[in-house]
Amino acid sequence: MTDLEFARERDAARFALRRGDELLSVLDYRDDGRTVALTRAYTVPAHRGHAYAAVLVDRAVAELEAEGDRVVLPVCWYVADWFRDHPERSGILSPRS
Questions:
Q1: Do 16 and 40 touch, CB atoms closer than 8 A?
Q2: What confidence tens digit (pLDDT) does each residue in 12-68 have?
Q3: Rounded to whole angstroms, how far apart are CA atoms 48 and 39?
Q4: What residues does 16 pair with on adjacent strands?
Q5: Engineered SS bond to 15: which of 26, 27, 57, 82, CB 3.0-4.6 Å?
């Protein structure tokens, strides 16, 4: 999966995963300056079943962890399940989670 391109598209309030010009998966968010609510993970139907959403959530969380100034609220069920499966990453979760 080294050919995947990860980007934070602030104007669209989403993280995106692409291969070249092809969009694979997106992760929508709302940012209030303290909390980033991850609201919807979506993988283009033709690309489902390849763990692109998991890669996208992992990279988005890593970016937010590196920034260090926000907590995450997993609104989307997929993101909540991802955090359940990766308890070692729960340090970034909002106390409201």
A1: no
A2: 999 999 999 999 999 999 999 999 999 999 999 999 999 999 999 999 999 999 999
A3: 19
A4: 7, 26
A5: 27
